[in-house]
Specification:
Elements lengths: L2 E7 L3 E8 L5 E8 L5 E2 L1 H14 L6 E8 L5 E3 L9 E2 L7 H11 L2 H8 L8 H11 L1 H6 L2 E3 L1 H10 L3 E3 H4 L5 E2 L4 E2 L1 H8 L7 E3 L17 E2 L3 E2 H8 L6 E6 L3 E4 L14 E4 L5 E7 L3 H11 L3 H10 L8 E3 L16 E3 L8 H23 L5 E5 L6 H11 L3 E4 L4 H13 L13 E4 L5 H11 L3
Parallel strand pairs: 1-5, 5-13, 5-14, 9-12, 15-21
Antiparallel strand pairs: 1-2, 2-3, 4-7, 6-8, 10-11, 15-16, 16-18, 17-18, 19-20, 22-23
The chain binds adenosine-5'-diphosphate and 5-O-phosphono-D-xylulose.
Function: Catalyzes the phosphorylation of D-xylulose to D-xylulose 5-phosphate.
Keywords: ATP-binding, Carbohydrate metabolism, Kinase, Nucleotide-binding, Transferase, Xylose metabolism
EC number: 2.7.1.17
């Protein structure tokens, strides 16, 4: 049996799956935690990858490997290849002012959407580089190369300084439509032009794994985690995928590039040569974690409580901007609770309001895509919640399909690795099972949420 390895180096943890390259059957897997915080020493990702891989039984029998990882993170290297400072992650909002400055300097959001398909907010790498140039000029001066989390891990594994279209499209200095770097925008933002990784095509080789001395394991280009998830879940044109991880994302595979001057939809590229319009939120699964912590219960009990309360939580509305927010672009926002009464002051009402608030927030992201898909697929850690699955169709006003719980980012990376071994298209792995959830639409829940957060 020929095996492939897929990695998901996401915000909270690193996951490794080892699959049969021909059928996609899961053979073994492992995971390890990442540190907390919005700035992280990349070495911690490396240690987590080693640990997750060890737990997955190592690379025995593996012929190709690929790394999917959280998008946008700024990794700066000096001319010896050492990390200059901790990486600033996609959910670090300190560069919100820099983002506003860059939008103004280029002549407005339309100009950015035309140039790179997206209007930069604090998540985008280009804004982090501007922040660095302004606030840490010594670090900026020492920066000889800039790359993203998956690029850095691929480089540590095999020594080649490369990236892919999907992850490059989240930098703010690579154009998905033109397929080339906009070094003019990077230079204008950063005041210098550091070396950038070569952008590989979807099934170009990225060298071989040298780090573990395991022999000839070929490396695929890897990609950003959302692009990998699209590949892993087998998203087709006509599907919208809603991912409830640390971030919330709603995205679709598209045949042509997009450019939304409102900034809500990021016009990313995907991992197959197509495109991936995507709306991202800073707040998603951790809204459930935070509510469970507040109530002093586990996630299963949070589900039970949420499902025990009435739909609409008796008018209690939870606006989940716990980490600030990106869509809408409110980097300094905080969360809020509205409609507290004696009647709604119960754990069940709070649990229900948190689930509904999270889903209303994701439904806003879904709406911003402006699509009427044949299927809405719910994935990510938060989609393991029974309350989320059962309440989602009421809030979204349409059925949702929940693929069986799995590591779809790591699976997508594994599928990319299998593609490297042969074939004009990604291998046609058999899809796992899925469950369809239906409910009567409950538009009142979204109306009340929209009223409270003041955008309707
Ligand atoms: N049964 C569950 N109910 C609710 N949330 C869950 C459940 N299982 C996992 N999660 C949450 O999912 C999140 C991790 O999801 P994941 O997609 O792996 O995130 P990331 O890829 O951003 O690291 C965590 O915040 C975790 O608490
Ligand atoms: O910033 C984005 C997308 O633009 C996020 O989706 C990150 O890619 C982090 O993903 P998760 O760790 O939540 O999967």
């Amino acid at each position: 049996m020929t095996l492939v390895a897929g990695v998901d180096s996401s915000t909270q943890s690193c996951k490794v799956v080892i699959r049969d390259a021909r059928t996609g059957t899961l053979v073994r897997q492992g995971r390890a935690a990442h540190p907390e915080g919005t700035e992280v020493d990349p070495e911690a990702w490396w240690e987590a990858l080693r640990e997750a891989l060890t737990r997955a039984g190592g690379l025995d029998g593996v012929e190709a490997m690929s790394v999917g990882a959280q998008q946008h993170g700024m990794v700066c290297l000096d001319d010896s290849g050492d990390v200059v400072r901790k990486a600033l992650l996609w959910n670090d909002t300190r560069s919100a002012g820099a983002a506003a400055d860059l939008v103004r300097e280029l002549g407005g959001p339309e100009r950015w959407a035309e140039a790179v398909g997206s209007v930069p907010v604090a998540s985008f790498t280009v804004t982090k580089l501007r922040w660095l140039a302004e606030h840490e000029p010594d670090s900026a001066r020492r920066t000889a190369k800039v790359c993203l989390p998956h690029d850095w891990l691929t480089w540590r594994l095999g020594g080649e300084f490369v990236t892919d279209r999907g992850d490059a499209s989240g930098t703010g200095y690579w154009s998905p439509a033109a397929g080339e770097y906009r070094t003019d925008l990077l230079r204008a933002a950063f005041g210098a032009l550091p070396e950038l990784p070569e952008v590989l095509g979807p099934r170009d080789g990225a060298g071989e794994v040298k780090a573990f001395g395991d022999g000839t394991v070929r490396l695929a280009p890897g990609t950003g985690d959302n692009m990998a998830a699209a590949l892993g879940v087998g998203a087709l044109p006509g599907d919208v995928v809603v991912s409830i991880g640390t971030s919330g994302t709603a995205f679709a595979v598209a045949g042509s590039p997009s450019a939304d001057p409102s900034g809500a939809v990021a016009g990313f590229a995907d991992a197959t040569g197509r495109f991936l319009p995507l709306v991202a939120t800073l707040n998603a699964a951790r809204v459930l974690d935070a509510t469970a912590r507040l109530l002093g219960v586990g996630l299963d009990e949070l589900d039970r409580l949420a499902l025990a309360a009435p739909a609409g939580a008796g008018g209690l509305v939870y606006v989940p901007y716990l980490e600030g927010e990106r869509t809408p672009n409110l980097p300094s926002a905080t969360g809020s609770l509205h409609g507290l009464t004696l009647g709604t002051s119960t754990p069940a009402h709070l649990a229900r309001a948190a689930v509904e608030g999270l889903l209303c927030h994701l439904a806003d992201a879904f709406d911003a895509l402006g699509l009427d898909p044949a299927r809405v697929l719910l994935i990510g850690g938060g989609a393991r919640s029974e309350a989320v699955r059962r309440i989602a169709p009421a809030v979204f006003g349409r059925p949702v399909v929940v693929p069986e719980p799995g590591e779809y980012v790591a699976d997508g990376a594994a599928r990319q690795a299998a593609w490297l071994l042969g074939g004009d298209e990604p291998p046609a792995w058999e899809a796992g099972g899925s469950e369809r959830y239906e409910a009567d639409p409950a538009p009142g829940i979204r109306d009340r949420y929209a009223e409270v957060r003041g955008l309707r």
